[in-house]
Amino acid sequence: MEDEYVMIDLDDVLRHIDIPSDAPYTLSGLDTLNPVLTIDDKIKLVGEYIETIGTCLAFSDKCENQTPQKKTVAKLHKILKFRLAPLDSEDGVTKTTTL
Questions:
Q1: What is the pLDDT of residues 29-43, one digit of tens each?
Q2: Strand, helix or coil for residue 11
Q3: Domain ranges of the chain
Q4: Could you tell me which residues come within 8 angstroms of residue 78 by beta carbon, excluding any fewer than 6 positions away?
Q5: How many CB atoms lie within 10 A of CB 45?
Q6: Which candidate, 87, 59, 61, places its Cα nearest to that of 75?
Q7: DSSP secondary structure letter of residue 26
Q8: Which has the closest alpha carbon to 60: 50, 51, 70, 68?
Q9: Per CATH, the architecture of 7-60+72-84 is what?
Q10: Model confidence, pTM
């Protein structure tokens, strides 16, 4: 079985909230249509897969002999775009979040 890489897109979310770079997270349901990303047990995001047009390439930056080098790490065919999930209150009623 070949590995499959997915790019995670948080651009829409980061316009509304600040996520610390060291915040713990859990990514679940990658094999479903709408994976869930939970950050710091406080922020719940719902994802949706978007097919790329063509192939996206992921690179890593390395320095060899003090010369920057880019190396292709993976080819991506899907983008996992996240949005804020509605909050559930104590009584189970779904609330909408206004930012």
A1: 999 999 999 999 988
A2: helix
A3: 7-60+72-84
A4: 4, 6, 7, 49, 50, 51, 52
A5: 22
A6: 59
A7: E
A8: 70
A9: Sandwich (2.60)
A10: 0.69
List all residues 6 or more positions away from 17 whose beta carbon is below 8 Å from its beta carbon: 43, 84, 99
> Tokens 């719902």 appear where?
46
Tokens (6 digits) for 7: 């790019």
Residue appearing with tokens 């779904």: 94
Residue type, 68: P
Q: How far apart are CA 46 and CA 74, in angstroms?
A: 24
Q: Which residue has the tokens 């996240």?
A: 82
For residue 39, how many other CB atoms are within 10 A of its CB?
Answer: 19
76-92 tens-digit pLDDT = 888 999 998 876 644 43
